[in-house]
């Protein structure tokens, strides 16, 4: 009887530990998403949007070299309605990351890109935070967050076109 109680207690402890890990992961994801939205808002202040101004991906991508461990992919989506306007360094979770900046009409889309140790592909997930659409996904050892005040449908379209051009369309 005592052995059964001990086994039940051990199973309960393992289940609780797993639940705590899931809650912490979700809290961490929410915190990072909040940081991404804050970075987007800061970028909209005068003089903070772009460090390198160019609609040429062959100018923007090399600009990141030496500033980050891995240069983010920079894709020209102008023909698809999302104009590349430049890039900048930003900070997320206390480390430097790349922000590739696009425009859709008069709306800014910040695409934040951070290197990750995981090569696991995570499908795009749309959230809304503080009135902004946030699309996040992971692939090729990078985490992506696209943030804008455009509608979720248009940001989803942006993400799909970006992934297709990257060669990983879902």
Notable traits:
7 strands, single chain, 32% strand, 7-stranded antiparallel sheet, 170 residues, alpha+beta, 3 helices
Question: How would you briefly describe this protein structure?
Answer:
This protein is of the alpha+beta class and 170 residues long. The protein is built from three helices and seven strands, in the order αβαββββββα.
Strand order of the largest sheet: 1-2-3-4-7-6-5
> In angstroms, what is the radius of gyration?
19 Å
| Range of strand content | 25-35%
Straight-line distance between termini: 52 Å
Summarize the amount of helix as a percent range. Answer: 25-40%
Assign an overall shape: globular
The helix-and-strand class reads alpha+beta
**Beta strand count:** 7
Order of H and E elements:
HEHEEEEEEH
Number of helices: 3
Mean residue pLDDT: 86
Contiguous runs where pLDDT drops below 50 for at least 5 residues: 13-25
Major sheet, described briefly? 7 strands, antiparallel
